């Protein structure tokens, strides 16, 4: 990689126990946190040296790399995978989606370096769960990322009552979905089960708020500055290249 930076610190915005849970993660020990902590607190991690997570590290096992996954962006064999635990009511998720994600797509997804895999983590309540099901219904028609962009373009206030079926149907129509199929897929057991599986996975590794990202095993929590993501992605790409060369 040629865009190496020398920032000595990668700041992490952490929610409650998330810093401890994600850095000292053990699958199966996490759980939900009813306090719904603020995603704006900050902590710092001073070791930013490139590392390749061991194959038996639970965080390294998170990428699914499923061909044709409509809720993923980028090459299935990209050297860096960013698993993104997010939800559609979270204002910090919206900030990331509007300000940072397009930059990462342009810089790293398009050149084959990065793959982004979405995970539903609808922890803010029923409207979050309803929106997550709508996202999966959009994915069933191959339009998840169009739905994602439309939902974050003009977010209602969390739990304001705005995200109802009429609101979601309007977005579905706006992005060219078959609304009848959209409604059917929202109500399907498959969508419910897939959403619940994502949510459980996040809880098991200690996620308590959104957005939460795992980049080749490295947690980055919160809507961090774009430069933070660039640094972690480039370090991960360098480490992956070194690991490949050493084999």
Short description:
One of its GO terms (molecular function) is isomerase activity. The chain has 247 residues and is α+β, with helices and mostly antiparallel strands.
What low-confidence regions span 5 or more consecutive residues with pLDDT below 50?
A: 1-50
User: Which word captures the global form?
Assistant: globular
Helix content: 40-55%
Just give the CATH class.
Alpha Beta
Number of separate helices: 8
Report the CATH superfamily: Glutaredoxin
Query: Beta-sheet strand percentage?
Result: 5-15%
Domain Thioredoxin: 51-238
Family: Belongs to the thioredoxin family. DsbA subfamily.
Protein name: Protein-disulfide isomerase
Region (Disordered): 31-71
What would the keywords be for this entry?
single chain; 247 residues; Glutaredoxin; five-stranded mixed β-sheet; two-stranded antiparallel sheet; globular; Thioredoxin_domain
Written description of the protein model:
The protein has 247 residues and is of the alpha+beta class. The protein has one domain (10-27, 37-246): Glutaredoxin (3-Layer(aba) Sandwich), CATH 3.40.30.10. 43% of the residues lie in helices and 13% in strands. The chain has 8 helices and 7 strands. The protein has helices at 18-23, 91-109, 126-140, 144-153, 165-174, 179-186, 189-204, 226-246, and strands at residues 10-13, 42-45, 72-73, 80-86, 114-120, 212-215, 218-221. The strands form 2 sheets. Strands 3-5-4-6-7 form a 5-stranded mixed β-sheet. A two-stranded antiparallel sheet has the order 1-2. The chain is globular. Residues 1-50 have low confidence and may be disordered. Residues 31-71 are annotated as: Disordered. Belongs to the thioredoxin family. DsbA subfamily. Keywords: Disulfide bond, Isomerase, Oxidoreductase, Redox-active center, Signal. GO terms for molecular function: isomerase activity.
